[in-house]
Design goal:
There is one protein chain. The chain has helices at 7-18, 31-41, 46-59, 63-68, 71-78, 85-100, 109-113, 120-131, 140-149, 159-172, 178-191, 273-281, 329-333, 339-352; strands spanning 232-241, 247-251, 262-263, 266-267, 285-297, 302-312, 324-327. It is α+β, with helices and mostly antiparallel strands. It folds into 2 domains: 7-219, Endonuclease III, domain 1 (Orthogonal Bundle); 232-352, Alpha-Beta Complex (Nucleoside Triphosphate Pyrophosphohydrolase), CATH 3.90.79. The mean pLDDT is 94. One of its GO terms (biological process) is mismatch repair. Belongs to the Nth/MutY family.
Length: 353
């Protein structure tokens, strides 16, 4: 795979005419603002991110504000975006920036990569867009553009192939207009060189693109070898309520699925709801009302959820204060909640009321 001349000039000329220039994070392009946008845009589409980004920046306009916030508050602003480790790492990185770097991002790629949750491509995007540093990115959009342009015949996730694509990305990175070029490559992949319906005739690289000369350009990038079907798991989620219609939520461990979020207590599908609730909380169950049953899919497994509302008498036992807490419905919905929990509280409880 040899670099082709005039690659970057064509991309930049296209960007000047067709690129996206009015996204919220393209205003006042500080390292902090670019960083937040890049983390949010991982695994998430631009249209979904925009309102989250705007709300987040209103609440946490500076790295100092983010570092000073409680993790629960940060996670509440992230609720619905998924991949919550991103938010936890971002909060940790903000604290480190304030404590160790006087609230300033490191100047070097290696320094930025040392911050929690920031890899090479994200670090490069931050430095090139906010500071004009000539350092290449290799996110999903750029991988797709390069894999098609060179008709890369192996899966980009393989180490050898990825290393070769990094060399290409570095070779094409210009020394001027670095931020514009980085944004242009992301835009090209997001708007023209899309996964399923690439608009090759509109692409500035079409004349030299090897994939465009094939019967089906979408065969590139080569797809990851098929894995076995995702495993299936089951759980019961309990909406435990008291006589004041408060809801009992459980704080999940900081690591693992939905780490650090408030969630509904769970139990295995074969367990008795009444026995579990009465033994765990030393109280009587007044009623059990079935709610919805649905599937929530993670990247690595399916979770089948059966929800029930469980009305309790007064709790006599002592609960772990840092693990369980009563909330009104409105206060619960203001917290960082897993998507299926929010669905149950918003939809099922509204239908009962």
């Amino acid at each position: 795979m040899q670099p082709v001349e005039h690659f970057a000039p064509r991309v930049l000329a296209w960007f000047d005419e067709h690129g996206r220039k009015n996204l919220p994070w393209q205003e006042n392009k500080t390292p902090y603002r670019v960083w937040i946008s890049e983390i949010m845009l991982q695994q998430t589409q631009v249209t979904t991110v925009i309102p989250y980004y705007q709300k987040f920046m209103t609440s946490f306009p500076t790295v100092e504000a983010l570092a000073a916030a409680e993790q629960d508050e940060v996670l509440a602003h992230w609720s619905g975006l998924g991949y919550y480790a991103r938010a936890r790492n971002m909060h940790k990185a903000a604290k480190r920036l304030v404590d160790e770097f006087d609230s300033e991002f490191p100047q070097s790629l290696e320094g930025v990569c040392e911050l929690p949750g920031i890899g090479r491509s994200t670090a490069a995007a931050i430095l090139s867009i906010s500071r004009g540093v000539s350092t290449a990115i290799l996110d999903g959009n750029v991988k797709r553009v390069l894999a098609r342009f060179h008709a890369v015949s192996s899966w980009p996730g393989e180490k050898k192939t990825e290393q070769a694509m990094w060399r290409l990305a570095d070779a094409y990175m210009p020394s001027q207009r670095c931020g514009d070029y980085t944004q242009a490559m992301m835009d090209l992949g997001a708007t023209l060189c899309t996964r399923s319906k690439p608009q090759c005739l509109l692409c500035p690289l079409e004349i030299d693109c090897q994939a465009s000369k094939k019967p089906d350009p979408t065969q590139f990038p080569i797809r990851k070898p098929k894995k076995a079907p995702k495993p299936e798991k089951q759980t019961q989620m309990l909406v435990l309520t008291d006589d004041e219609q408060q809801i009992l939520l459980e704080k999940r461990p900081s690591s693992g699925i939905w780490g650090g979020l408030w969630s509904l207590p769970e139990l295995a599908v074969e367990e008795s709801i009444v026995l579990h609730a009465e033994q765990r909380f030393a109280t009587n169950v007044l009623s059990v009302t079935p709610l919805s049953s649905f599937r929530h899919t993670f990247s690595h497994y399916h979770l089948d959820i059966v929800a029930s509302q469980v009305k309790l008498a007064a709790i006599k036992g002592v609960m772990e204060a840092n693990k369980y807490q009563w909330f009104s419905l409105s206060d619960a919905l203001a917290l960082g909640l897993p998507t299926p929990v929010r669905r149950i509280l918003e939809q099922d409880l509204n239908e009962l009321s």
